[in-house]
Amino acid sequence: MSSPQVFLGTDSGATTSKTGGILADGTIISQQLRQSSTNSQAGTAAVVNGWVEGAAGFLADHGYTWANVRAVGLALPG
Fold first, then answer.
1. Local confidence pLDDT in tens for the 78 residues of the chain
2. 7 to each of 13, 20, 78, how far by Cα in Å?
3. Which string of b and e fits 34-66 if b means at least 16 CB within 10 Å?
4. Under 8 Å CB-to-CB from 48, ≥6 apart: which residues?
5. Closest CA to 54 of 7, 17, 1, 5
6. pTM for this prediction
7. Cα 48 to chain center, whole Å?
8. Which three-class secondary structure string do you get for the chain?
């Protein structure tokens, strides 16, 4: 049996980022998005690190790893 293919999306706002995902067949992994602080007051590196941590947390919450990920999308304001 092949490993599930996961597609992630993160919506980054001014104060909070939300991450969700679907499987390759279109199945929604969870209706509950993972929310995390954007940490914009700490600078660019902290924001980027927060996106990665949010995605990693979403994967771990649902029993997946980065090896399952086939693509990641990022939505930014502005």
1. 579 999 999 999 889 999 999 999 999 999 999 999 988 899 999 999 999 999 999 999 999 999 999 999 999 987
2. 20, 9, 24
3. bebebbeeeeeeebeebbebbbbebbeeeebee
4. none
5. 17
6. 0.91
7. 12
8. CCCCCEEEEEEECCCEEEEEEEECCCCECCCCCEEEECCHHHCHHHHHHHHHHHHHHHHHHCCCCHHHEEEEEEECCC
Structure tokens at 21: 């995902």
**Cα–Cα distance for residue pair 26/55, rounded to 1 Å:** 18
Structure tokens at 43: 């600078």
Residues across the chain: 78
- Enter the tokens of residue 6: 């996961």
